[in-house]
Every structure is written in structure tokens, then in C-alpha cells.
């Protein structure tokens, strides 16, 4: 009986050791991304101009949302302060003008490993060679 309790306790501790995807914030405990929702506040320094709300949602191992024109989804993994999106898919609706340009810029950023940085105002930036997206937490 003690063996069963010891094994169950060990399994519980191992299960609690992983709390979903997190990012580092330099010394502070890393926040969980799973279950959070964000608004895309800027892409390469420009505020979103699309007619549709640009947003990002994180589940345990998926990222989804709308980049200004089409809905998208992907898997994601985090190692330290680097997030990598995998198997990005999106709907293929045609949008004219700013919405499509905004979306293309965001998907370029999402297509490479991104450095995640948490800002003092609670926002988060995703940066790589393709540019920077700033996400503001939804309230």
C-alpha cells in the first residue's frame, strides 16, 4: 500500500511540474500563456488598421485568433523566452488594403522563432528578423 501511495505521489508531483506554456520575464515568475487572450496592439510599430479585430488566444498548446483578415491557428512551443509556432493554418478570405497587409506582416513574424518580452505595462512583444508584434492583454 505504501508503494502505491508513493508512486501516486510521485506521479502527482511530476504532473504538477509542468504548468503549460510560459515565458520568462527576467527574474519574475514566468506567467502562463495558456488561457490568455490578447489584442494585437501594433505590428512593426503601426497600430492595426484592419476592419476586423486583431486578436490572439493561447490554449495549452495552441495559438489562434484573427490577424485582421483571416482566422488562424497553430501549435506553439516555448523554450526559455523563444516561442515557435508550428503548422500555421488560416482561412483564405480575400481582404483588400490594410487588413491584408497587416495580416501578411503578422504571419511573417509568426513564421519564425520569436523572442517574447513582457513590458512593464503588461503587454508582450514577439520579435524576430521579420519584425515585431506587440500584444496587449484583453481585459
Keywords:
single chain, 139 residues, alpha+beta, Lipocalin, eight-stranded antiparallel barrel, disordered N terminus
Note the run of SSEs as H and E: HEEEEEHEEE
CATH architectural label: Beta Barrel
Largest sheet, in brief, is: 8 strands, antiparallel, barrel
| CATH fold-level assignment | Lipocalin
**Class by helix and strand content?**
alpha+beta
Please report the number of helical segments.
Answer: 2
What's the pLDDT, averaged over the residues? Answer: 80
Poorly predicted segments: 1-30
Widest β-sheet, arrangement of strands: 1-2-3-4-5-6-7-8
State the shape: globular
Indicate the proportion of strand residues. 35-45%
Structure write-up:
- This protein starts with a helix and ends with a strand.
- The longest helix is centred in the first third of the chain and has 16 residues, at 2-17.
- The protein has an eight-stranded antiparallel β-barrel with strand order 1-2-3-4-5-6-7-8.
- The protein is built from two helices and eight strands.
- With 139 residues, the protein is an alpha+beta fold.
- It has one domain (20-137): Beta Barrel (Lipocalin), CATH 2.40.128.
- Mean pLDDT is 80; it is low at 1-30.
- It is 21% helix and 37% strand.
- The protein has helices at 2-17, 98-110, and strands at residues 37-43, 55-58, 62-66, 71-79, 82-90, 114-118, 124-128, 131-137.
